[in-house]
Amino acid sequence: MRSALLLVLLVAAPIPAFAQSRDMVSQGITVSGSAKIESAPDMATIAFTIRGEGATPDAASTDLAKRQRAVIGGLASLDASLRIHTGSVATNEVRRGDCAGTPGASMRALSINLDAAMSDDTDKGPCRVAGYIAAIEATAEMSAVKEAGTAVGLAQRLGASSASLEGFALRDPEAASRAALAAAITDARIQAQALAAGSGSKLGRIVSILGMPEREYAMSSIVLAEPPAYMPMVMAAPVNIDIAPKPVETSARVMIVYALID
Question: How far apart are the C-alpha atoms of 251 and 211, rounded to whole Å?
Fold first, then answer.
């Protein structure tokens, strides 16, 4: 699992002129603080493709729309807050026959075959159209994380193909980042206080906090489901698949410069 790394840059105001006194800052101390917190993921992402087949483009699109409604309705039964995002949509011809010419055929003969295939009489040519396939790619975001494994199989049963559980995440990663940052600053201050006490000095104010931002999100193992051989006529209860996602790790690291007071 990869971790989310958050570092920030804050610079304090310059030391006022009246600080030139007995308690003026005479030296500083630099410490590095770090923290890592774990949060249970509250979002799972499922990716799938839905295909429709038919003798005409409209028939294939109609079949696709029917399967799409079934898949989305089934997933929504597991998670009322389901979010669906669609990607590419395509409709393609399915051809049957000699679409590449015969072995040893000349380029001219191949050209004749292709011309025949593209003629109006596409159902009788050497590369005739046998039907059409319409497909759409989609992803589903689920708040019911524990149902994500079950959802993969259910989507497959209802007509999706190549369904997979892509990973887990946090819907509000900024909240975890803020908590990790606060913990990292606390860690730095504890170190600075120990060093100041050991040197016989008092810990002053923060002069600067330095860092570089970087963040990554952990992904889960992928669970795949193969295309169905047929569509069941009776809707049975979905097969329950138990999952135990790892917590999402959020890390923060800061470099803090403190003033030391004599």
Answer: 13
Distance CA 252, CA 212 (A): 10
**Fold annotation for 1-41+171-262:** Translation Initiation Factor IF3 (3.30.110)
Q: Token pair of 238, please?
A: 């979905």
What are 101's two structure tokens? 């010419």
Selection from 144, 189, 204, 152 nearest residue 171 by Cα = 144
pLDDT in tens, 52-98: 999 999 999 999 999 999 999 999 999 999 999 999 999 999 888 77
Which pLDDT band holds residue 235 (cuts at 50, 70, 90)? low
Q: Which CATH superfamily is domain 43-169 in?
A: Protein of unknown function (DUF541), domain 2 (3.30.70.2970)
Query: Is there a contact between 176 and 35 (Cβ–Cβ < 8 Å)?
Result: no
DSSP 61: H
Domain ranges of the chain: 1-41+171-262, 43-169
Let me know how long the chain is: 262
Cα–Cα distance, 27 to 37 (Å, whole number)? 33
Round to whole Å and give the CA distance between 255 and 95: 64
Amino acid at 4: A
Cα–Cα distance measured from residue 254 to residue 251, given in angstroms and rounded to the nearest whole number = 10
C-alpha to C-alpha distance for 37 and 151, rounded to whole angstroms: 29
> Residue 15 corresponds to which amino acid?
I
